[in-house]
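Work package 3, deliverable 3.1, input record:
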Amino acid sequence: MNRGLTITLIVACVVTAVFVFRKIKKSQFKIGDTIYWLFFSLFLLGMSIFPEAVFFVSNLIGFEATSNFIFVVIIFLLLVKIFLLDARVAKVEDKLTKLAQKYAIDNETKEI
Amino acid sequence: MKVLIIIPAYNEGENIERVVTTIKEKCPQYDYLVINDGSRDNTQDICIKKGYHFVSHPVNLGLAAAVQTGMLFAYKNKYDAAIQFDGDGQHDPDYIADMASEIEKGYNIVVGSRFVTEKKPNSLRMLGSNLIQFAIRLTTGKTLKDPTSGMRMFDKKMIKKLALAADLGPEPDTVALLVRGGATFSEIQVEMHDRVAGESYLNLANSVNYMLRMFVSILILQWFRKG
């Protein structure tokens, strides 16, 4: 892994962490949701500190370049997050629909 | 003193009648409010039929939101204290008066604790309790002997915070955050019953997730949150 990628990972880690802490400060994030991003950030830091481990796994699976392996891992983690978010949005939409319907029926107006 | 007993109930059709009857019998001097959290069973029907004091969420919003609805009601109606009282029959209303008198002494938070005079048993669940207790002592310097007890009473000042703030759920990290923000607390010895009917949501995955959330929240995020 070249030095540029290492530095990029460290910067990404710090930026993610700072972003999470700022959101928490403004109460715009739920505690449970921050855990994913904090671990994500730690994971980036881990990869930049122990490139040998990343190199080892990358070779084991058969990637030609370690950087490709890192991209694939990050894309996978983001896909998981999108998948979970998708499920959550569906649930929220369903609840919103039910709330709006209840409000509508409770406020039924009859024409005279 | 005006005390509100908040009873969050999600699919507690088998328990709710017994819980409310016991409360009415043992604590006639206090008000209660059942928060039916979008139950799919007959919880709401029972409340209507029996003429209970209740509100219903049209959709399920979760325990934290249900308790917050109770706090909002307590705040709007200027209650001096509000207690979370589980709808599954684990809590005993006998202790509510004792807890209320602690609030009268000036404490902001009173916890119905299983381990003030009793010793904590050695089980996996209590290991979790000990770890959370340790985390809270580390950040607040105070010892909360039963951090996971859901039986908590709050005074007027705390009711306002809990009613209006975001993400202050009925969990140990909330107590830790409030204490770090200057709230005082007292613990009184209580006995808790096992669930009579229905099932607990506690399993391994949930427990690990819970511990992780508490630790990150108490040890890391608390420094960035407003107390």
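Chain B touches chain A at residues 58-60, 165-167, 173, 212-213, 216-217, 220-221, 224-226 (CB under 8 Å).
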